[in-house]
Amino acid sequence: MTGIVSGYDVEVLRKDFPILERRLADDHPLVYLDSANTSQKPRQVLDRLREHYEQHNANVARAVHQLGEEATAAFEGARDTLAAFVKAPSRDEIIFTRGVTEGLNLVANVLAWAEPPYRVGPGDEVLVTEMEHHSNIVPWQLLTQRTGATLRWIGLTDEGRLDLSNLDELITERTKVVSLVHVSNMLGTLNPVADIARRAHEVGALVVLDAAQAVPQLPYDVTATGADIVGFTGHKMLGPTGIGVLWGRRDLLAALPPFHGGGEMIEDVRMERSTYAGPPHRFEAGTPPIAQAIGLAAAADYLTAVGMDNVAAHEQAITAYALERLQAVPGIRILGPTTVEDRGGAISFTYGTLHPHDIGQVLDSLGIAVRGGHHCAKPVHRRFGIGASTRASAYLYTTTAEIDALAGGLEQVRRFFGVRF
Amino acid sequence: MQLTSMYQEIILDHYRDPHGRGLREPYGGESHQVNPTCGDEVTLRVQLDDDVVRDVSYEGMGCSISQASQSILHDLVVGQPLPRAREIAADFLTLMQSKGEPAVAESLEDSLEDAVAFVGVGRYPARIKCALLGWMAFRDASEQAAVAQGGTG
User: Fold this and answer.
1) Is residue B112 part of a domain?
2) Chain A contacts to B (CB-CB under 8 A)
3) N or C: which end of chain A has fewer CB within 10 A?
4) Domains (ranges, CATH) in chain A?
């Protein structure tokens, strides 16, 4: 490592990630700069998954045998681990979901059926922002279209931050929900969520956070965010795919109706009607992703052992390094904040007139993995007058040498297409 | 390097200097196509003169593969009778579905001329849609144009 100092030895840590030793076509070593898309997994997570399937596999909460008890203990133990990881006041506030997408859909759906004061109906408003991932736009469009409510949104400044100049017009007594991203997956912007939550609570609105990019990078305290509900996903924080967490304030969850109906979410079922379990099981119908939850707990243990303060410091340092290196490449235009202040690790950019597909393809031929496209955030691309961008995103295993490889790779891209900027 | 199998020089030439770009009047049919995975878009117009493709004009944003493909489409179908233009479009689809098989490209060389350079794209499933975007728009717009002029198409 050169250029930055981290609270841990990145080269030693990288040995925990078998995939980082891979060599790709033409013997290029993998340079993985797509962690905002999905992170790589350490051996500790992979071992925990294997151990569960090899030694303890059984369904949870319904098997009266030793394996069932072991699997249930591990699964519910994962709930304790995740509660501690985000400083949730109670383990019953941790709902396991498939990911943030399912979590946000859960919230948007149950608010159509909730009792007052939570129900969203005709004349009510839901407020989102222009920098949301599609998963924090479309569920709210569906809710408002189906209930006769209105969807509004906070616009953006040219620097890629929320334009809060008209917030008083946007948050009114009609506002029932304010749902926003904590750290943008495209611009990298870290939003002032506690301030916005305070304003929203003044009018009695619920505050929902998409923390998919925040929880993997920051020491996280759900209550400090000021939000009522926070969703995050496992696969972006070293865990398996197919598992996520929806945290909600206990009294709020207790007042909300079920989402999916099925096994495990009930108290009693008669042919005429059913009564439901309390949170969190009320919101976890069917066999849950058991191994995935256990794997996610292993990921949380791993991050805790490294230290989330160290993870955040490394993310800041490597992002600062990348912003500086990229801005020195002629033709690069960073979308979003150009310094690390109030910023996460995703760096999206345009490169002259070259298209992200072409940039990504040539970088791929050099072993460099970035994302090219709209990153499931079309409105924010439209806001900046483009259809797509290239995104590089680092994580705790990213080295400055990999950022150097990207900068060098971009020069090769330019030469390959024979253009000058 | 494998890269040059996709980005053949002829494709890069069309990308740097596209033929027939820009939307023109008159036109008998227009189609707007979007690639949902990357957000690329094309608006393409077709003008028929009896049964002959008189003009194909287009505008949009996209990668070199999609831009070059639209440029080559323009070169191949303008001046052709519509049934022949549709054969060319069908052949291009076959080429894209060939998984980069050189024998398929060879068998289509008489029909597709320079467009066989796209054979390498067929090896990259994520990029096939890029190459086909303009051709999908052409199929749609030419059908509209045929209907508009009262032909059977």
Assistant:
1) yes
2) 25-26, 355-358, 361-362, 365, 372-374, 378, 381, 387-388, 416-419
3) C
4) 10-32+307-417 (3.90.1150.10), 46-304 (3.40.640.10)
